[in-house]
Amino acid sequence: MILDQFKLAGRSALVMGGNRGLGIEMAKALAEAGASVAIAARDSSKNEEAVAIVDAVGEGKVIGKSCDVTDAAQVEQVVGEVKAELGSIHILINSAGINIRGAIEEVTPEDFRQVLDVNVTGTWLACKAVSPIMKAQGYGRVVNIASMLSVIAIADRTPYTASKGAVLNMTRALAVEWAPHKITANAILPGPFATEMNLPLLDDPEKYQNFVSKIPLSRWGELTEIGGLALFLSSDASSYCTGGAFTIDGGWTAQ
Q1: For residue 197, what is the domain's CATH number?
Q2: Fewer beta carbons below 10 Å: N end or C end of the chain?
Q3: What confidence tier does 199 reach under pLDDT thresholds 50, 70, 90?
Q4: Does the pTM exceed 0.70?
Q5: 127 in a domain, yes or no?
Q6: Are strands 140-145 and 183-190 parallel, antiparallel or unpaired?
Q7: One of 139, 160, 208, 240 is an active-site residue; which one?
Q8: Is there a catalytic annotation at residue 208?
């Protein structure tokens, strides 16, 4: 049956940046489909809250790990611990990310490096760490969270657009590299969602309406709307999809 292709019973997932926003919604979706889930993020107290939320909706094991995604040693350690505790890692979702806004003359080199370090290097380190595991088992699903700003631009976003463009092309390169090992790599390109990262826009009525005016569906995305796409790309239903860029932006980039 077609619905069986979406079931994740017996699979284990690692969600980097999975303790809030889009990350926890995707973790919940995988847990509801039957997966065991590991949530990794820096804030250990927030991780505990997220584990309780995700554990309540699924039947698999749910664990939390404190991890700075920019620290190679920490990422390697967390991946090793998750593999040991959950048996393997079949699915990786890279959802950790930051955004520093401002005109280019206002953004510091340190700001620029920080955004690239979290969004690009953090994603690369997690992919690197799970690669031997997925190759050894001849199976893997990797989902990197890019952005609609991977393919279009908005003023005052040079660090973020640079980072998300890199994430998209990195995903494509990994898709080609991993294809012989039956590992798929795809990118989700979200548009405006009501996450903590977007509070500066949500709290400004003028900026909020300016964004809404550009969205054909005339609204921001609800956090729960990311789950179905993440589940599809994490399941056997997407077995012939790799190197893809899946927009979920209310139609913004279709214009």
Answers
A1: 3.40.50.720
A2: N
A3: low
A4: yes
A5: yes
A6: parallel
A7: 160
A8: no
